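Predict structure. Chain length: 212.
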Amino acid sequence: MSGLLGNDSLVLFQGDSITDAGRDKNNPASLGWGYAMMVSSLFAAMHPHRPVRFVNRGISGNRVRDLLARWEQDCIALKPDWVSILIGINDMWRRYDSNDPTPVDRFEREYRDLLRITRERTRARLILLEPFLIHVRKEMEGWREDLDPKIQAVRRLAREFNALYIPLDGIFARVCAMREPTFWAGDGVHPSEAGHALIARHWLQAVGEWVG
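Prediction complete.
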């Protein structure tokens, strides 16, 4: 039984450093070493006769405003069949490391614009991954004041645009009861290889393509 990814589909991964994962910006086919690469590799291993192309355009440090500024080139022009977005942690983090906050209303408005443009200019289905934070240091608990309203905004947008939704914050909270938080992300933000594999597994499950 096949899942939702049609043969010859183009799947676009978008986001910040978690998606970027060290990809070679000079090589359009580079997927980096993170969950995007793992999704592509696992899909190919499980479905070797189904041609699906995976493309990564995540850029480290990006916020929603940065995606919006480059969306024509890095999304619309690619004519994707699926657009997978993981964004939001820098919209929170810049408040604490650079005193450059993104108000939640701006975050939601610009994210909505991103999705509206995608809906109007492409035929792509949407996959939204919520931003997440793993508490590896006590002060990070206070960051929830900024992040949690943004997570709720992404959930509202997923309902509004009928997107597939992957609740990563809850997923990581659950597995942190199984292993210490740093096992999944040493700094609480950037996943380990195990953390990326966890994202990849839930991504494939969300589109009905996980075998096992």
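Summary: The chain has one domain: 10-206.
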